[in-house]
Amino acid sequence: MIMIRGTTAQFKFKLPYSKDELEWIKIKFWQPQNPTFEPITKIYSHCNQSGPNEICVSLTEEESAAFSDKYKGHVQFRAKPKEVGGLVFGCPPQLFTVYPMLDELIIEDPNSVPTEE
Prior knowledge:
Blueprint: E1 2-4, E2 9-14, E3 22-30, E4 40-43, E5 47-51, E6 54-59, H1 61-65, E7 73-81, E8 89-90, E9 94-99, H2 103-107
Parallel strand pairs: 1-9
Antiparallel strand pairs: 2-6, 3-4, 3-7, 5-6, 7-8, 7-9
């Protein structure tokens, strides 16, 4: 998994169920070495079905800009199926590379950039 700071970063997870078969989903993003980073949590409503047993969740531009490119990011998934007696399942923490984006490009208003004619 990779992510570029300041972009809408998408993460996919393969599951033993479709999204509709799940009661709830919780996905946590964090960067333990980064003292200024606050963990980000995504839930069921933030996820989209992207394949038969696959979901996709996105971080906003602002959320991905909060990561430092000096450290790896971490993500972990947990969910519970709707079926009676369904067992909560999850995945081990997964590391992803955070690629840099110049801060000037992240905070710059794209409408104020001169266009070539």
